[in-house]
Each structure stands twice: as C-alpha cells, then as structure tokens.
From TrEMBL:
Residues 394-424 form the 4Fe-4S ferredoxin-type domain. WD repeats lie at residues 229-271, 357-399. InterPro entries: 4Fe4S_Fe-S-bd, PWP1, WD40/YVTN_repeat-like_dom_sf, WD40_PAC1, WD40_repeat_CS, WD40_repeat_dom_sf, WD40_rpt. Residues 54-77 are annotated as: Disordered. Keywords: Phosphoprotein, Repeat, WD repeat. This is 4Fe-4S ferredoxin-type domain-containing protein. The keyword Repeat applies. Residues 56-66 have a biased composition (Acidic residues). It comes from Pieris brassicae. SMART domains: WD40.
C-alpha cells in the first residue's frame, strides 16, 4: 500500500448552518511561540490522562502509584524538555511533535489543505462568507487525525470547499449548532461537538486558527486534586440544542444517560437515567420546548416531558434505535429507525406505531423528514443506498440511488434548500457527497407541486410563557 494513502477516511457526523449567521470575514488568531508551546503541553497532559484512563489507571478513580510516577523535570517550567528537543533523536512526547506538525493551521503542506497568502495568487474571495452561503460542519477522520471541517456551500454558484478547519483530540461522533454564547449577550455562531471523550467541546465558528474551544461542558474527576466528575462518564453520542430555551443543550451518552445542560451555568441541570443501554439519538420538539425525543440501544424510543423527567412514554423497535426525528408537519408524530433497516412512524397519542417498513437491508443511519416539503422523508443506510419516501399517507418509496460514499454514516439537509443534502460515508476516495434531489424526475413529479413551508431562522419562543 502507498504510504501516503490513509488507512481510514470517513465522515462520522455533519450539520448544516443557516445562511446569514456567520461573520463575512472570520477573525484569525495569531499564536506566539510561547502560547503554542503552552497549548502543546496542555494537550499532551490531557492525552496522557486519557491514555491512563483507557488502561484503567485513571487518577480520578485511584491514587497514583508513586513508583510509577513520571520523573520530576529538571526545569519545572519545561515539563516536556522542549529546550533540548533538537538534541534528542527520539522524543517520548505522548502526542509527538509530528502530530502537531501536521495540523492544517500550523503549516501542513499536504494536498488536501489550502494555504492562503497575501500575495496576488491567493484567492481572497474564498475567505469571505457571503450572505447566501450555507456552512456545512463535517466531522472528518483521516488516518489517525480527527478534524472539524467548515465547508462553504452555495448551490447557485456551484461552490463547495473547506473554508477552515479545527483539529480535534478525539473521534467526533455528533455535531450541533447553537447561537447561545454564555459570555456574550449577542447571538453567536457556535457548534457543540461530542465524541469518544465524555467532555463536550463548544467551538466558535467565527474564529479561525483556534486551538482551544470557546468553552467545555463537563469535567473528569481527580482524587488528588479533589475534583469531582461533572457530566458524562462515557462517549457523547448525540446532541440537541433547545431553540426555544436557548440556554439548554441535551446530550445522550454511552453511559446510558441523557443530561440537560444549563449553558449559562456550564453544568447539567437534569439527568435522565432510565435507559437500559446507550442513548444514540436525541432531539427536542421543534415547537414544544419541554418535550424531548430519545432513541436508545435498548430498542426503545422515549418521549419525555422535561418539566417532570420521570414522566415518559416508550415505543419499541428492536434491537437498537439508530435515529429519531420529529415530523414538524404533524406535531404529535415522529419517525424512528433501527440497526436492521426498519423505519416506523409513531403517533404519540397511540400505543403502537402507525406503520413500519423494511427501508434498508442494514442500519438506517440517516433519517430526515423535510421541514419545508410536507410528506418528504429521506433515509440513508450502511447498505450504501439513499431513498426518498412519501409519508403523507403510509410510506411510499419515490426514488433510490447508490451512494458514492460507500456505507452511509450520516446525512444533513440544507435548511435553505430542502432538495440539497450532504451524505457522509467511509469511502477513502469519496467520503462526502452533495446530492441535488431537484434533478430527480421521480422526486419532482411527486413533490414539485407541493407548497413549500417557510421555516423562520429561529423558532418562536411562545412556548416559554
């Protein structure tokens, strides 16, 4: 195998951002050498703690064995011996400076990274995010590197390119956009990221070359420092921001819980712990601020009234729920999919699903009900197929296409163009694909004459009262 060919290249999660919320020209951070060294040291320390935790040696759960303690550095201000780095053949840095040298924002010259200069050959127009541009946030894993890529998408201009990216310390599993910044009364352009680590990171998308998130949700325990755990104990699998109560963010985890975070306090306000397995999918109701829909690996989808967290109803779809989605056009209804290819439509006022179909041969990893076009449902699966359905009355398959990305792992629909969507997969040659459903005769014949519903940029706060 060619050494330059990555062993893994996949897109694990993605999320579209509406037009007009991003700064036209994001701010850029210029780091000094000392600031960069400090960040490298902190990252190394974090990764060392993570590595010990994975080996069952977490400082939080047991006292550190003094015999195994790291040697005290000669210079307390130079823990990793950076002063003598050039004199050493092999550096036992837990993260390795080779990793830092490949950060796109720190001078990676690989062909996948666009290096912009101030010279006459630079395309300065690409730096500007226009009012009719959408952003697509993509969690990309390539070889042993995990990156959040911020794409610019403009269908009318045929534009689709990476505007900037952010290096991540772990495998990303979910992305959620939010505008609530606890440090600023004005709406922001932020995204929350969940991954293999229990700590949720929130990044400011209007800042380039940023190596630290705007803030984090959660803390790992440490007995020596008398720090108690805050937040989840395991990987964060899904996130949902409450657009009606903008200071609330929900997170589902592999620790079998859902946490409702108060962003202003930076701490969980409510814990839902009645799940019997990992919580893979969560979403707040688009109109009822207090209502949360969850799907878990115990084969049940649950609807919870967050004002009374113990009050919930459940519907089964064995064996594992992959995705759950509300139907905005029928506020009492939602759709759920599972790991064997089934999709079921549920009316919360009834005990059993209204209908169930064998949508795919394998896991249904992408599930969308259009907010703008009544009756349009889109599914993608690890069988490398994407299908459209008319669910106005039952479920009728409208179209089917093969995904170029291989086994599809996620999908996202453009909020300003309901027939444009992105699909992410695990194909090394092509792991992200933009799909234009407006070129499908079957889709246009079926949905072309239906009225488009205008969805406001921010949902109403009427439920707050």
């Amino acid at each position: 195998m060619d050494e330059t060919t990555p062993s893994v290249s996949l897109v694990s999660c993605m999320h579209f951002v509406r037009r007009g919320v991003a700064k036209a020209v994001p701010e850029k951070i210029e780091l000094t050498e000392k600031e960069l060294e400090k960040i490298i040291k902190q990252t190394a320390d974090d990764l060392r703690i993570t590595e010990r935790a994975e080996q069952g040696l977490d400082d939080s759960d047991s006292e550190t064995n003094e015999d195994n303690a790291a040697p005290v550095p000669a210079d307390p201000n130079d823990e990793f011996n950076f002063a003598k780095y050039d004199d050493e053949d092999n550096l036992s840095n837990p993260i390795g400076l080779g990793t830092i040298a490949t950060l796109p924002n720190l001078g990676d010259l690989s062909e996948d990274v666009q290096i912009r200069t101030d010279g006459p050959d630079s395309d300065e127009e690409d730096d500007i995010i226009k009012s009719d541009d959408n952003l697509l946030l993509v969690g990309h894993v390539e070889s042993d590197a995990s990156i959040l890529e911020v794409y610019v998408f403009n269908k009318e201009e045929g534009s689709f390119y990476v505007h900037h990216d952010i290096i991540l310390p772990w495998f990303p599993l979910c992305i959620e956009w939010l505008s609530h910044d606890p440090s600023d009364p004005q709406p922001g352009n932020l995204c929350a990221l969940g991954g293999m680590d229990p700590i949720i990171q929130v990044w400011d998308l209007d800042i380039e070359n940023c190596l630290e998130p705007a803030f984090k949700l959660g803390k790992k325990p440490n007995k020596k420092k008398k720090i108690k755990r805050v937040g989840h104990k395991d990987a964060v699998l899904d996130l949902s921001w409450n657009r009606n109560f903008s200071h609330v963010l929900a997170s589902g985890s592999a620790d079998n819980t859902v946490l409702l975070w108060d962003l202003d306090q930076g701490a969980p306000h409510t814990t839902l712990d009645y799940f019997e397995d990992k919580v893979q999918s969560i979403t707040f109701h688009p109109l009822e601020a207090q209502t949360l829909l969850t799907g878990a690996c115990d084969g049940r989808a649950r609807v919870t009234d967050c004002r009374t967290p113990t009050a919930c109803r459940a519907w089964s779809l064995p064996t594992e729920i992959e995705r759950v989605v509300w139907d905005r056009h029928n506020p009492f209804c939602f759709v759920m999919s599972n790991n064997t290819g089934k999709v079921a439509y549920v009316d919360c006022r009834q005990d059993e699903p209204l209908w169930m179909i064998e949508a795919h041969e394998k896991e249904v990893t992408g599930l969308v009900i259009s907010d703008n076009i009544p009756g349009l449902m889109i599914t993608v699966g690890t069988d490398a197929k994407m299908k459209t359905w008319d669910i106005s009355s039952g479920a009728v398959q409208v179209s089917e296409r093969q995904c170029r990305v291989g086994a599809a792992l996620c999908t996202a629909v453009c909020p300003d163009d309901p027939l444009s969507l992105a699909v992410g997969g695990d194909n090394k040659q092509c792991c992200i694909e933009m799909v234009d459903l407006s070129v499908s005769e079957q889709v246009i014949d079926r949905f072309g004459s239906r009225p488009r519903v205008a969805i406001p940029a921010e949902d109403s706060n009427s439920m707050e009262s």
